[in-house]
């Protein structure tokens, strides 16, 4: 099969990860979780102890990390300097700091380049994030922007993390605000993206709909 790049963007809890992984499995494609890359660098920055508001130091630490991430949609590993950090990158410390690290322009430039190389090497790949359709893969074969009501997003995330809904809702709102208002590559809907509101849709329905869209486009 030929090249095919699917870009999936949207806020936290919109169903991006589940949908993207399932779609990649059914397309027999690779899968890239760009949020995990920002989270991994954030873990390294926290470990280094540098001040999160010091963009220059954050960028320096980020630039020195040996970050590796797999692209198997059935389960991929993330390592930083050889340390497996799949669990750590989902923890509250990283979640609390990731938007600040992701707002540093030099960090984004570095990761966007890395992501573009991985996409070029993959051939068929589903890529999820915040700026994939707008910045990382503007010529993707299909761009999807997933949304869902704030309540639905908080419920999904708190179920995944076994966390309190109200705490999760507050965290999502805080991250959405930071991610949407940062100066460089904010969370953005590409003009040619297909917008899907997943509030009332099951995962299967969303995946099926994306499958149809890809088939229609040949
Ligand atoms: O998708 P996930 O919630 O794991 O992303 C974690 C954080 O990484 C987001 O809140 C955002 O700050 C950042 N991110 C980003 N650009 C991407 C993917 C994630 O800025 N393409």
Automatic annotation (TrEMBL):
<dbReference type="InterPro" id="IPR027417">
    <property type="entry name" value="P-loop_NTPase"/>
</dbReference>
<keyword id="KW-0418">Kinase</keyword>
<dbReference type="InterPro" id="IPR003136">
    <property type="entry name" value="Cytidylate_kin"/>
</dbReference>
<keyword id="KW-0067">ATP-binding</keyword>
<keyword id="KW-0547">Nucleotide-binding</keyword>
<dbReference type="GO" id="GO:0016301">
    <property type="term" value="F:kinase activity"/>
</dbReference>
<feature type="binding site">
    <location>
        <begin position="10"/>
        <end position="18"/>
    </location>
    <ligand>
        <name>ATP</name>
    </ligand>
</feature>
<dbReference type="InterPro" id="IPR011994">
    <property type="entry name" value="Cytidylate_kinase_dom"/>
</dbReference>
<protein>
    <recommendedName>
        <fullName>Cytidylate kinase</fullName>
        <ecNumber>2.7.4.25</ecNumber>
    </recommendedName>
</protein>
<keyword id="KW-0963">Cytoplasm</keyword>
<feature type="domain" description="Cytidylate kinase">
    <location>
        <begin position="6"/>
        <end position="213"/>
    </location>
</feature>
<comment type="similarity">
    <text>Belongs to the cytidylate kinase family. Type 1 subfamily.</text>
</comment>
<dbReference type="Pfam" id="PF02224">
    <property type="entry name" value="Cytidylate_kin"/>
</dbReference>
<keyword id="KW-0808">Transferase</keyword>
